[in-house]
Amino acid sequence: MHRNSQKRFYGNGYTYFITAKTHQSFAYFKEKIFCELFIKELKLCKQLKKFDLFAFCLNYDHFHLVLKPNEKNNISEIMRSLKTNYSRNANRIIENVDSKATSRDVAFDNHTKYLQSLRKQFLQKHGQNQLQIPKFKWQKSFHDHIIRNQKDFDHHCHYTAYNFLKHELPENWKYTSLNYPETIDVH
Fold this sequence. Notes:
Layout: E1 16-21, H1 32-49, E2 52-58, E3 62-68, H2 75-94, H3 103-107, H4 111-126, E4 143-146, H5 150-161, H6 163-166
Antiparallel strand pairs: 1-3, 1-4, 2-3
Helix pairs in contact: 1-2, 2-4
């Protein structure tokens, strides 16, 4: 466990509100390419780790999720998978590196071609030797809150889905569960 991490409570049936931030609050998600990659990675992680997702919002430097893990994967395993795979793939784009496709990439919708498409878009916009966007890193650990009852659940789902307004992102902000109903589970 990271020395500054909070103690986690695991158990069957818990639903969690989760927050994770980028390293030094760098606003990576001002760039649409990184937002699109995050949505893709969130969907893949949901498919692999088989958790219920009730709400999410991606902001410029952090994200919120409301989710319920299954019996096989706890929130730490889910977050490790999401953050690790996202970081690796974001850095493939930023660093313009042709790395070998992982078995995960090949197994899911030919993920390698998708990453190559995003990298091409990134290079067209920022050029070969861009210096504005540093290597992608997450802040260590994440914050979680166990949902206690229906009122708490409703509050956190609403807070999460509409969090982009609190942070004064555009009113038509696309990267919230409000725009991805096919990805959201019914509670």
